[in-house]
Amino acid sequence: MTMKLLRIRRKRLNRSMPVDILLFLLLSAVGVFMALPLVFVINNAFKPIDEIFIFPPKFFVRYPTLKNFEDLYHLLAAFWVPYTRYIFNTVFIAVVGTAGHVILASLAAYPLAKKQFPGKKVLFTCVVLSLMFSANVTAIPNYMTMSWLGLLDSYWAVIIPAFGSSLGLFLMKQFMEQMVPDSVLEAARIDGCSEVRIYWKIVMPMVKPAWMTLIIFSFQGLWGSGGSGKVYIYSEQLKTIDYALGQILSGGIVRTGPSMAATLLMISVPIVLFLITQSNVIQTMTTSGMKD
User: Hey, is 236 helix, strand or coil?
Assistant: First the structure.
């Protein structure tokens, strides 16, 4: 490992200043290009209706206004179910589903990463193969399972399928293999620690970047779960804010302004969560490609 670091440092020292400048300009251009959709959404949310439909379209807002947000508030207040109920449903599904997914994924990943038992490779192969199937493929089996369990038209019809997502298990297992030394676990067992205590006090703190990254992925998927919510949930009192905003979006051209404001509000929560935990996400993505 020391020789590898020396070689990397030598390469950095040998790199010329023009190459560094070129790389900086290239990465800056890519970063600006990737940020353009977000900037466009933010500007559209503050555009008056005449600027939204102006041709040729303007990228930046010229006369910013909060009228789109005011109209959105009045539209939500006109629903016969309070909009705060939609927000509560969304937060409850996202928080409970994310917490359960992280706990179950880490509990299953620990023996797969650090234990030896018959069928271990077969189980992990099944996990990897399950990553190939999109949500559209598993939608009908999930619906039938929730129907057999009698959980349709409830929060759990959306939450329980999120618990079993294989992405979290794969991510946690790979990270535990790389970042949790077997010597540390053996030392803990010699000191008399139980497996539960080793998992909670030693393993989980060492893989914090992994489960912080998993929180982002899981929360983002559940926060925008209006599509699956319409399939599993029928009662208006249990629907999510994504569904309520979708009803506003279907109102036609006259609701274009509130629709732009709703889009900004829906993406703002995952973006804020990512900004808070971005260092852990970068560390997870960097470590996942490392080899001993």
Answer: helix
